[in-house]
Amino acid sequence: MSKKIYITTAIPYVNAAPHIGFALEVVQADALARFYRALDYDVYFASGSDENSLKNVQAAEAEKIPTQKLVEKNAKLFENLAPALNITWDVFNRTSLAHHFAGAQKLWKLCKKEDIYKKKYRGLYCVGCEAFYTKNEIANGKCPDGHENIEEIEEENYFFGLSNYQKHLERLISSDELKIVPNTRKNEVLAFIEQGLEDFSISRSVSRARGWGVPVPGDPEQVMYVWFDALTTYLTALGFPAKQDLYKKYWLENPNRLHVIGKGIIRFHAVYWPAMLASAGLPLPTEEFVHGYITVDGQKISKSLGNTVDPFDLVEKYGVEAVRFYLLREIPAWGDGDFSISRFRDLYNGELANGLGNLTARVARLASDTNLSLPPKKNFTFKKVVSDNLKNFRFDHALVGLWEEISTLNKKINEDKPWELEGVALKKSITPIAQEIREIAFNLGPFLPQTSQKILDQFTGKISAEKPLFPRI
Ligand SMILES: [Zn+2]
């Protein structure tokens, strides 16, 4: 194995149970991990939970339980996404654990002395976003994300000298040395940088953080701003700083360091994080893929609207493959998408039951009638429509392309009418189609791993008719 890639998801707040938006991100990252493994890359895939946020403290207060209890309970729910959605991450890194604290403190200490300084600060703080806003950004007492409890705060905090990195970041991103996909997001980040970067606060008083968070090295009065510590997960997931093996292998000595993130946190990942790493003298991520948001029936997901979609319920009702298919095929990978049950059922019946399921069942039946047997095959390759699109994170385009081939095959069978043939003629007509189904099955591997394996098994050796892959709903 010569090539390597490190793939990460962002780490969500665990103040509530996971929703469909995070399911999208983990399924996308998992498809990439499976794709690169099939290409013989040495892959390390990390996820985790962001547990040091003030939001967790507030959620715990509301539930009247200790914060540690709340984050443990909820982190478990996020960790359970792996068995539910058949996700193959190698590690789920929780940021309230000791090794992560050590990593965040190490990164702090590695930053250049002149980049971290103390300053009295007065600002409008949104707890919902864990971010400061200017007066202009707050309208009618609400932050740009619509949160209401904006507090005016004055305290002495540590600041990070982000302004020192303006030119550096501009060059890195415009040259694609730090590549941001899609291009619209890259331009958004560049526009933000060109407006001028301001130093940002990277600590909070212990009292305002209610004692929750990573202590600032050498200052018992301050804990780290949650983003400073949370971003360090990408290093501590590899064992940084105590354990060097994985960290060396996948961060220091690996040219492919990929973050998969949502559009709402691009500023933290494409501006703050690379600047922090540059200050610490560490390698930066090489690529960031930014997905959009999911609405439900055209409306923003919100607890107050009661329209949250529980990924676990969906899997229980329709099966993991159908859920992965919807997320990867229906949500535009480069933009925003929508979830609706009626669309879910239409896609399931149209593309899985009728398209792929029907093709496989018809051909298996005919092949079994004529005792067709395909010798085992080892060296499958990805079709161009899959490899080109997955390298560009266009999961939806890859699947649309595969389904065009499926419908072409279904059409060909309708025209050839192999069921009117017998013996050698039937075998001759059906063999190339059976072989092509097996090629498609291999190509489905990153997206629908169970279905892929089922079809590969069914179409290797003597082919037999099996139960339908996707019974109609
Ligand atoms: Zn807010």
From TrEMBL:
The keyword Lipoprotein does not apply. GO terms for biological process: methionyl-tRNA aminoacylation. Residues 5-147, 153-363 form the Methionyl/Leucyl tRNA synthetase domain. InterPro entries: Met-tRNA_synth_2 (IPR023457), Methionyl/Leucyl_tRNA_Synth (IPR015413), MetRS_core (IPR033911), Rossmann-like_a/b/a_fold (IPR014729), tRNAsynth_Ia_anticodon-bd (IPR009080). Its EC number is 6.1.1.10. Belongs to the class-I aminoacyl-tRNA synthetase family. This is Methionine--tRNA ligase. The lineage of its organism: Bacteria, Candidatus Curtissiibacteriota.
